[in-house]
Amino acid sequence: MSSTASGKSGTWRNWGGNVTVRPAREVTPASVDELAAAVRQAAEDGLKVKAVGSGHSFTAIAATDGVSIRPQLLTGIRNIDRKAMTVTVEAGTPLKRLNVALAREGLSLTNMGDIMEQTVSGATSTGTHGTGRESASLAAQIRELELVTADGSVLTCSEKENPEVFAAARVGLGALGIVTAITFAVEPVFLLTAREEPMTFDRVLSEFDQHSTENEHFEFYWFPHTTSTNTKRNNRSAGPAQPVGQLSGWFDDEFVANGLWQAVNMLGRAVPATIPSIARISTRAWSARTYTDIPYKVFTSPRRVRFVEMEYAVPRAALADTLRELKAMVDRSDLRISYPVEVRTAPADDIALSTASARDSAYIAVHMFRGTPYQAYFTAAERIFTAHEGRPHWGKVHTRDAGYFAEVYPRFGEFTALRDRLDPDRLFQNDYLRRVLGQ
Fold first, then answer.
1. DSSP for residue 244
2. Which residue from 80, 342, 359, 427 has the highest number of Cβ atoms inside 10 Å of its Cβ?
3. Beta pairing class for 307-315 and 289-293
């Protein structure tokens, strides 16, 4: 299977392999007009409509038994405005292609997540983010977007035009319409120096505020069953570029992080008792390294080993307590966790359903190797996250519903009222949206 989700005989399956669905009809429009026509036709036929990107969500956010819109023909850059420093891109463009195309033009996004398989619309609509002191999620870098609404009309939204839609649709969960184009703020391409080094769990937590204040981008990975973490700080650099060497890059990023990691996880899945020992050995495989390159080559890395993930944003001030509780829970349980826990940060933003909406946030992501039972671990982790008013990533496993979200998102009612206006007949509804947004 390729890095995008796929299926045989009309069955669609997501990347994590935990969501499978068979739509009544698949449409691959080649233009915005064709997409709008497909939306109108679906409404006439009494079918629900969902757009699906690369299937990188672990939730059923894109699943439908109605009309599934595939965006692979709606790709590429529409326009680069060097005066305004923006780029307008078709919604189905994979982030990987956008990053490479921007670099060729001497441009870059300011911040990005750690993988780039997703489409730009799928990534932004679910609130995909990296880590940053001042620079926020992908959606927070949007300056304008184009949306096909339930009646087939095309809306352009920005701070000036349809601002109330713009405030919500940047992280729109596919509930307000189908995004067809996105205009991102960009800047001249720059260099980042990454410094990766091991650090103990207690030290990284006691120095967390210092590291996340002193560095433009700070994150770390904690290995359950150990007191070890691996930290990464990315900061702008005057250069020169000093990329990871081809051989050492292949060894660290492909052999260790993907090939060996797959084998180790398969062993752990077959014999869970080996996991704590594997974790201790894994932490020793992470050696300190420093390299300098253009942003997407520093921010992102390939993820070929498939997993299932839950991630919550907690208030920034609650990070240390939350993580200590998570560690205590794992230590006293019978759980065997082979995947590290990833910790990142984001500044508050002004998007209604962004996980960082109106509050500085810290993200804690828990993962399990695909095919390993993950429910017990995720349930216990979720109990800790929700006790701190955590907000789950919209594209990752969680069990929260509209009642919960109304409490943790101050602008939840604003979003649902806009949905009532734009999609009164719930053309874009599915089971997931029914749960998280209510009827």
1. P
2. 427
3. unpaired
Identity of residue 185? A
Distance CA 25, CA 321 (A): 48
Structure tokens at 274: 């080996």
Name the 3-class secondary structure at 282.
helix
Residues whose CB is less than 8 angstroms from the CB of residue 292 and which lie 6 or more positions away in sequence, other chains included? 191, 192, 193, 194, 237, 239, 240, 241, 242, 243, 298
What is the distance between the alpha carbons of residues 183 and 176, in angstroms, rounded to a whole number?
18
The band of 4, judged by pLDDT with boundaries at 50, 70 and 90, is very low
Fill in the DSSP letter of residue 316.
G
Sign of CA dihedral 148, 149, 150, 153: negative
Two tokens, residue 63: 């699943």
pLDDT in tens, 213-223: 999 999 999 99
CB-CB contact of 161 with 147 (8 Å): no
pTM more than 0.85? yes
Place of tokens 């995004």: 179
Strand partners, 219: 232
Write out the DSSP string of 169-224. HTT-TTSS-EEEEEEEE-EE--EEEEEEEEEEHHHHHHTHHHHHHHSSEEEEEE-T
Those residues whose C-beta lies under 8 Å from the C-beta of residue 262, and which sit 6 or more positions away, are 304, 305
C-alpha distances (whole Å) from 154 to each of 138, 270, 370 are: 22, 51, 39
